[in-house]
Amino acid sequence: MTPTAIFQSLRKYVRQSPATVERQEGREFTIDELARAADTTVRNVRAYQDRGLLPPPEKRGRTGIYSDVHLARLRIIGQLLNRGFTLANIRDLLTAWEQGRDLNDILGLEVVVTSPWSDEAPSYISYEELLEYFGDHLTQDVLLKAVNLGYIIPEGDRLRVPSPRVLSAGRELVAAGIPLEALLDEVNKVRYEVDRIAEGFVRLVTTHLIDKKYGENDLPRGEDVPNLAHFIQRVRPLADMVVSAELARILDKSINKVLVDRLANVLTHLEQQRSEQNEA
Questions:
Q1: Where does a domain end: 96, 114, 132?
Q2: What are the coiled-coil residue ranges (predicted)?
Q3: For a FRET experiment, which of 3, 122, 221, 241 has its CA 20 to 30 Å from that of 135?
Q4: pLDDT value at residue 219
Q5: What's the confidence (pLDDT) of residue 43?
Q6: pLDDT digits over 36-87, tens only?
Q7: Which residues of the chain have pLDDT under 70?
Q8: Under 8 Å CB-to-CB from 40, ≥6 apart: which residues?
């Protein structure tokens, strides 16, 4: 299959798939953009707003402008609906949550909890640039695998790259001789392990900071709300430092082991050659 045919097939695949729109830091939304970003509908957004589940937008003329706060609230509503709660349940919960608390602090906590951990800015490349980067490695299966993993997101005639650092690392590894498909398969395995690590850090915060202080059926109150939001923000770089340090340690250990094992094999082979020469 030619590169052009592969890209056409990819565009067709993406048109048939649910739209994916990630939040950009500080971004403002029209109601249509907000609905797409939250993977919901404009009708739902208006319904949540009418029921008091969603704060009203800022009015600019006749246009309502929404923010990260609205996106965070929509994501929480969606997650609760997926768990089987009704809109009435969620409204009661949010009402109880807001009583005696500063609304700005509450919404600030929602944004912190639902926002991405990485502050890396996405970039855009063309299909032709992607082909230039990876050449014959770009089969249809490989492209779809990269899309499903979220490393490239087709948007019309260009591709959004959520993590330019990952793309750069991938280019370098492929240029060194590692097949792109094998690299993506390994990344998929890494994600499983990273999920376990992340869940461990979340359990630490939940068990020792939230459950211990508020119990399993309550949420922070008053000044504790912004304090918790601030701490969650601090956990992110702290977790990153711990994971990075441990990964570096294990990589050093593993690479050294590979090198020593290879040297041992070479020495063993030389000894066998000498032994054979002496016997001859």
A1: 114
A2: none
A3: 122
A4: 63
A5: 93
A6: 888 899 999 999 999 888 888 999 888 899 988 888 888 888 877 887 878 8
A7: 1-26, 93, 96-120, 217-226, 229, 259, 280
A8: 74, 78
> In this structure, what token pair is assigned to residue 92?
């009661």
| Environment class of 72 (CB within 10 Å of its CB; exposed 0-12, middle 13-18, buried 19+) | buried
User: Hey, what are 249's tokens?
Assistant: 């340690």
Q: Do 94 and 150 sit in the same domain of this protein?
A: no
Q: Give yes or no for a contact between 151 and 161, defined as CB atoms under 8 angstroms apart.
A: yes
Which domain CATH number covers 99?
1.10.1660.10
Domain, as residue range, for 135: 8-12+119-186
What's the N-to-C CA distance of the chain in angstroms? 57
- Counting the structural domains of the chain, the total is 2
CB 151, CB 143: distance < 8 Å? no
CB-CB contact of 35 with 75 (8 Å): no
Q: Which two tokens stand for residue 54?
A: 């969603």
In three-state form (DSSP H/G/I as H, E/B as E, the rest C), the secondary structure along the chain is CCHHHHHHHHHHHHHHCCCCCCCCCCCCECHHHHHHHCCCCHHHHHHHHHCCCCCCCEEECCEEEECHHHHHHHHHHHHHHHCCCCHHHHHHHHHHHHCCCCHHHHHHHHHHHHCCCCCCCCEEEEHHHHHHHHHHHCCHHHHHHHHHCCCCEEECCEEEECCHHHHHHHHHHHHCCCCHHHHHHHHHHHHHHHHHHHHHHHHHHHHHHHHHHHCCCCCCCCCHHHHHHHHHHHHHHHHHHHHHHHHHHHHHHHHHHHHHHHHHHHHHHHHHHHHHHHHC
Phi-psi region of 266 (alpha: psi -120 to 50; beta: other; left: phi over 0): alpha
Q: Can you tell me the distance from the alpha carbon of 96 to that of 49, in angstroms, rounded to the nearest whole number?
A: 17
φ, ψ (nearest 5 deg) of residue 120: -70, 130
User: Is residue 216 assigned to a domain?
Assistant: no
